[in-house]
Amino acid sequence: MLAADGGGGTNWSSMNVEQMQALIQNPDTTKYYELLTGWTQSHQLIIDHMSQVQCYRDSLAAVWPPEKSAASAAYLARLDELIANLNETYEAALTNHDAFAAATLSIGLAQHDMQKIHDEYQSNQQLLTAFKTQQEQKQNSSTPMPTPSPSGDEPPVAPGRQEELRQQAIKLMSGVSSDLVQSQFRIVKPTPYSPPVGSGEKNNTE
Questions:
Q1: 32: which of 4, 63, 191, 202 lies 20 to 30 Å off by Cα?
Q2: Which domains, and CATH codes, for the chain?
């Protein structure tokens, strides 16, 4: 994915439109959306598994009341720990999906907007190059040019328009970088589940 250091590392103002266009168009958002599908399936599978464990826990408590058996209370406590861990993992998967989706959407929208900026910038550059060539040819011509130049010799692109487009690109890229930084901060790493080890199991491992 596009580097997320623009908010505090990448100096976009030092780049031209062509460089920024190359960077934003490089990521393949199609592959990112495929990964998002994987995140969706992940949290769906977790919630399904958690529901099954919860159902098993409730059914067990109904036929083996914990208030009447210390063993039942201990067993149900372990199931509660497992359910809590599954819930934490589910919430993490859901949060990570949303963070990744926000980053992917930001890149996709920026690619569209940057393409428009780049197209105009490139078209303007071609017009300016042709105009410069025309002016040089006139200067090298033996026919004297009237002063002032006729209106037909006015530049085909408004003065400052190219720099205006570059500033639009800088603002766009800075916004994407900020979005990516925020998405990275939202990424959650769930606590690994460590199954309780009974005294008998401890003896076996010693």
A1: 191
A2: 16-136+157-194 (1.20.1260)
pLDDT band at 197 (very low <50, low <70, confident <90, very high): low
| The model scores a pTM over 0.90 | no
Least reliable range by pLDDT among 21-25, 46-50, 146-150 = 146-150
